[in-house]
Amino acid sequence: MVNTLDQVTPTQVESTTKAPIQETLLTPRFYTTDFEAAANLSLTEQEIELNAMLTEMRKDYNRHHFVRDEEFNTGSWDHLDETVKKGFIEYLERSCISEFSGFLLFKELSRKLRGRNPILSEIFHLMARDEARHAGFLNKAMADFNLSLDLGRITKTRTYTFFPLEWVIYTVYLSEKIGYWRYIIIFNHLEKHPEKLFYPIFKKFENWCQDENRHGDIFTALLRSQPKLWNTWQSRLWSRFFLLSVFATHTLTVHERASFYESLGLNATEFDQEVIRKTNQTSARAFPSILDVDSPEFYPRLQRCSKRNLKIKEIGESNVPKIVKFLSQLPLIAGIFGDLLRIYLLKPIDAEALRGTVH
Ligand SMILES: [Fe+2]
Ligand SMILES: [Fe+2]
Fold first, then answer.
1. 20 to 30 Å CA-CA from 283: which of 73, 132, 183, 276?
2. Is 81 helix (H, G, I), strand (E, B) or coil?
3. What ranges in the chain are assigned the alpha helix state H?
4. Ligand located closest to 214 CA
C-alpha cells in the first residue's frame, strides 16, 4: 500500500503549531491547473520512457529510507546558536511547504486523471507518495525544535495559484531538478566536512535527492512528449523565462538565509552559483533553450538583485511610515526588474543544437 501523508505525519506531536511564514513572492506556492488538458495529453511520443519511469517508481527504492533512526531521538540541538537555529527552521519550513505543495498537486492530478489517463494517474500517485514522505519527514524535523506545521489547515487556508498545464510542466520540472542539486550539493559537502553536520537530516539527502531526480526525469518525458513545449519560438522564450524566475528566486532566498548555509560551512554565493550552473546544464536535456550563466553579466546582475532584495527587506522591517517605505523601496524594485530584464535578453544557448552531446 502506498503511504499517505497521514501515515507519515506525526499524529501526536508535542510541539507548538507554527504559524506559517508570511506569503511573499518568494515563498513556495500551491498550484492548481487545467486538469482537463492533463487528462487529454497525448503521450505517444514518450510512451516507452514514461512506462519505464512507471516501472521504476513502482519499485519504491526509498520505501525504508525515511525512518527516524537513533540519532534523531538521542541527539540534542539545544546548544545551537540562535541565528543558526532560526535560519535552519526557516529552511525546514520552506522545504516542507515546497514538498507539500508538490504532494497536493500530484495527488489532485492523480485523482482527476483516474480512469482517463491511467499511466499519468499512477505516476502522479507515486510521486505524491514520495512528496508526502518528504514533507512529513521535514515536519517531524521541525517538531524536534518544538514546532510543526498544521499541513491540514494550510491545505485549506492557503491560496492556490492557477497555472496553465504548460507552465506547470516547465516549473515542476525545474523545481524537481533544482531540488535534486540543492540536496546533493549539501550532502556531498557534508560528506567532506562531517564536523559541520549539526543535524542528522542531511545524511538522508543522498537517497532523497534520487526521488527528486526521478520526478524530474518524468517531467522531462512529459515535456518532450509535447512538441509545442520545445519546438516553437514561444517555447524558447518560456524556457528562459522560467529558468530565470527559478534562479532569481533561488539567489534571493539563499542570500536571505546566508547564515544557515555558512553554519554548514558553505559559502552562500558559491552554493547558489553551483546550484544554478548545474540546474541550467541539466535543463538542456529537456528545454529548447537555456541561459548563458557564464556570461560575465549573468551572476553579478543576479547578485545585485539579491543585495537590493535584502535592502527592501530591511526597509520593510524598519519603523518608518508606510509611504516612506514604499517610496524608498520603489527604485530598488525597479532596479531588480531592470537587471532581470537585462539577464533575460542575454544571448541564450540553443539546447536543441546541443542535444545528443549533453550528458
Ligand atoms: Fe520531494
Ligand atoms: Fe519531487
1. 132
2. coil
3. 5-8, 35-39, 47-59, 70-74, 82-113, 118-143, 151-157, 165-192, 205-224, 233-256, 258-263, 268-283, 298-317, 322-344, 351-354
4. 2
Are 123 and 217 within 8 A, CB to CB?
no
CA of 175 to the centre of ligand 1 (A): 9
Q: What are the residue ranges spanned by the domains of the chain?
A: 5-67+79-229
Is the pLDDT at 13 greater than 60? The verdict is: no
Contacts of 232-236 with CB under 8 Å at 24 or more apart are 235/288, 235/289, 236/288, 236/289, 236/348
C-alpha cell at position 230: 520545445
* Confidence band for 9, pLDDT divided at 50, 70 and 90: very low
Rounded to the nearest angstrom, the distance between the alpha carbon of 99 and the centre of ligand 2 is 7
**What is the per-residue pLDDT for 5?**
46
Whether residue 263 contacts residue 192, with contact meaning beta carbons closer than 8 Å, is answered with: no
Q: Whole-structure pTM over 0.70, yes or no?
A: yes
